[in-house]
């Protein structure tokens, strides 16, 4: 087990993150607890900015908020001068609630509703990434009704299949996302957007091939296909599109075997392929954008849990159950994702016992880590699961009515809450009892309160 980024082991043998003792954090804030190492997040954001401004001057790095979005995260992203990709009215609302500059927001999604598009237009988001013809027509109507012009990119599926889990491949032709590359229908839609829609200004193209991609060649191939397509649009339609957004997708380290490329390698490969392809067809180099999510925030996150029941099934398996599970981290059940972890209160002890970490949900599949070597596990131990910054909180649910965990940042020895822990009251806050049922248990609310007080 390798510690990540700014993790270390303190004098008491506890895991430290961002200068904070994780066992004390668990005591102070409770568990499960999402911990974000702010310095690690900022460092990745800076690595991206540095690499892309070096290899592709004038390019733009856009953080993909779907990986993790809260108002505090928006503030950090803004302070690091990255732009922001949002994918729903809810994500847009979160960004606006954090005063994120709308002109640096890119609005994505394969089925944006009319009210989401209206909201985006009303707030003047920088670019809308149009996914399909239905959306294109809707957006023209909305922009015309508001008497404004909207800048768009059109999302293209470049036909590149990448080596990652099928659920997070998005660049293949058989995809719910985008316009397929180089079909007559796609060219017609692009022509319509560019020439026949008075309130739409088509400025470029977008593609995104998938997530947790480790092989940089796939990004290079997609970049080359997209540049060639820009060339075809110039030759056939006389269009000169200035922007090329190549999406996100760079992988991160989940287990010790993973060796993800650095943002620097990624920027270099994209720069080389875009530059070479442009020069072959004599096309001016477009402004390039990338949209990393996971690789900015993933390794900055750790989730702390308290171990409860530990049980042995002789000659079969030893289980340790924690106080969270598929509700706060659905990636294991969704994608068979593999995680590493340590016992935060025994971080200096030798791992010598094979154990399976189970969650507390009523599903046999609710297992966070199958067969991990840890020091002997006992009830009350604090388990720290690594690389949980991306697609954990943002994909969390309330299955079994488990309240969502709190989230904190740790930074230079300080900790701050950035998302409060949900309460049981939050779980019924939006429930309504129809009047016809209201009379049957007039005292229900009162009895819950008095039960909680006892
Ligand atoms: C359009 C788009 N951009 C960016 C991303 C971010 O990808 P990642 O978090 O793998 O970098 C995604 C993820 O699905 C996406 O769909």
Please explain how this structure is put together:
Helices cover about 30% and strands about 25% of the residues. The model has no long low-confidence stretch (mean pLDDT about 95). It is globular, with a radius of gyration of 24 Å. It is α/β, with parallel strands linked by helices. Strand 20 (about 405-410) and strand 21 (about 415-420) form a beta hairpin. It folds into 2 domains: about 5-35 and about 300-430, Beta Barrel (Lyase, Ornithine Decarboxylase, Chain A, domain 1), CATH 2.40.37; about 35-300, TIM Barrel (Alpha-Beta Barrel). The longest helix has 22 residues, at about 215-235. The protein is built from 14 helices and 21 strands. Helix 2 runs parallel beside helix 9 (about 265-280), helix 5 (about 115-120) crosses helix 6 (about 135-145) and helix 8 (about 215-235) packs parallel to helix 9 (about 265-280). It starts with 6 loop residues before the first strand and ends with a helix. The strands form 3 sheets. Strands 4, 14, 15, 16, 17, 18, 19, 20 and 21 form a 9-stranded mixed beta sheet that branches. The chain has an 8-stranded parallel beta barrel with strand order 5-6-7-8-9-11-12-13, surrounded by 7 helices. Pyridoxal-5'-phosphate binds near residues 85, 208, 249 and 295. Pyridoxal-5'-phosphate (PLP) binds near residues 67, 208, 292 and 295.
